[in-house]
Amino acid sequence: MTEKKFDFSIIMEDDNDAVPDDIWGGVPVREDRKGPKTIAILIFIGGLMILFQAYSDFQSHSLEDIPASEVDRLLEAPNSQTDTPITNEEYQQFHDDARESGGYLIRSIGLFISGTLITIGSINLFRLLKSGPKIATTGAGIGFIAGLYGSHLIRIASDENLSGALLLTYEIFTYLCGTCMFLCGAFSALPLINARARAALRDGSSKKVELQSNESEE
């Protein structure tokens, strides 16, 4: 009788070990390590682009007077498409109003924080850490709010001073900024939503726990 009980306990242990830890809706989920790493590479590139835009906005905020040659280059294409060209003085006034409203500075600071968090989050996601998508999604949310608000302030300045194609450009840029940050946030959150990707993620302390348990067994 004791021998039968011993055999039965071994069978039960083997059956329990065969059941995957991550089960969704009663169906075993297989880990997907490739998907999260691909997303990590994409949002890493996005984070670098956001940091570049933040640096560009900071330069615009720091620049008091735009050189006449630079203004001529910026206005060349828009003025060729309208009967009422924008003068250098009007564009300079737009630049001054945008700086005074804080639009460039708000967008620069917000996008810098956003780009930094997204870059850090992408690195952690590539290492398959659960903190990665959470950090990146938080960064995308900050960039979405700051980017939209800063772009809105700049667009108000453009409404008061510009016209034609250039006015439309700043209006489109507002929606483009919001759309890009939304997509970046959606990609960042995808590993937390997808069951197979989520099964591949682990806590940062898991390796330490395994090492400690192995050392204690030895």
Write a brief caption for the model.
With about 220 residues, the protein is mainly α. The protein is about 80% helix and about 0% strand. It has one domain.
Q: Ranges with pLDDT <50 over ≥5 residues? A: 4-21, 208-216
Major sheet summary line: 2 strands, antiparallel
Contiguous helical run count: 9
Number of separate structural domains: 1
N/C terminus separation: 34 Å
Give the ordered list of helices and strands: HEEHHHHHHHH
Helical coverage, percent range: over 70%
Quaternary structure: single chain
Order of strands across the biggest sheet?
Answer: 1-2
Task: List the topology elements.
Elements: H1 2-18, E1 23-24, E2 27-28, H2 34-62, H3 68-79, H4 88-101, H5 103-126, H6 131-161, H7 164-193, H8 195-200, H9 206-217
Antiparallel strand pairs: 1-2
Helix pairs in contact: 2-5, 2-7, 4-6, 5-6, 6-7
